[in-house]
What does this fold into?
Amino acid sequence: MSGPLPYVTAACPGSGGRLKVTPEDFRVDEVPAYLPSGAGPHLYLHVEKRGRTTRDVVKALARALGVPDRDAGYAGLKDRAAVTTQWLSFPVARDPDPASLAGDGYRVLTASRHQNKLRPGHSRGNGFEVVVRGGDLAAARRSAAGLAEAGLPNFFGPQRFGADGGNAVLGRSLLSAQPSDQARRAGRDRFLRRFALSAYQSLLFNRWLSERIADGLFATALLGDALKKLESGGVFVCEAPEVDGPRVARFEVSPAGPMFGHQLRPAVTGLPAEREARLLAAEGLAPADFARGGDEAAGTRRAGRLPIEVALSPLEDGYAARFALPRGSYATVVMRELMKADADLPDDGE
It folds into this structure.
């Protein structure tokens, strides 16, 4: 449903190389929004897993603890083909020995307690360590320097959309006055419905950001732009580009693209308004059409440009890249800039 994404470091050669030769070649450590307080009705477990999905581990631990897996809490999902750490919560009164909860492909590092259930989004982001086998370190360093200067384009990674963009196709159909049979069935599954609608919103955001880059406006504040404060997340309208432009350059704020929805306040003037209206018109949609998606398609704003620092170190057969990203941003996007390839990386979890 969309062409290849542009590079902001297109002038730098790619490092090439291979990813995920072993699960240990990709590590992600969740950075929690808060740590458990040590007291409360919810058991918090800090879990390391390898070759298992988050849902696999949640179900196994729920069985061991004697609670329904639907009552478990987690901030985000982590990929199977990786070594990952994250917090999980369970409404359990007893305090088990963490070592007794180990299972196939996972172990509990720490146990604590907290007052509330862990919920999706309760994380600050993730730290990544990615090994590129056979990659050219010198080339990767040039791209990493380019990223540090230009900023990271906050694209959604290809794993968001599924094989051949099927998730986004399904999301578009859910917004139609005459949805497909598959969309009708998906609409009865709240998780699948939310995921498909988000995939379609993400596709449109990627198109918006691709156009900004192609137009040379990636790091520019335009009159009428929605701008997002990168520290607090607040959004405001640019009324003085001469004031806000330097703030964009310093990574204080970023142009914020649309995750279209029926409650999203659209850009109202100039090129930002024209671009958003054109993207929707090309899909044959109006903002009100997203009301068919209900609360899952209310809409929001997403920063288009993020600061990024990638630390690189040599290996005998390639290099390792270490970096951190906020919640909802994709390691895939970093690695494709370094390698100049649409890397098949595990998701960072959302």
User: Anything to note?
Assistant: The longest helix spans residues 190-214. The CA atoms of residues 222 and 271 lie 8 Å apart. Residues 34-120 form a domain with the Pseudouridine synthase fold (CATH 3.30.2350.20).
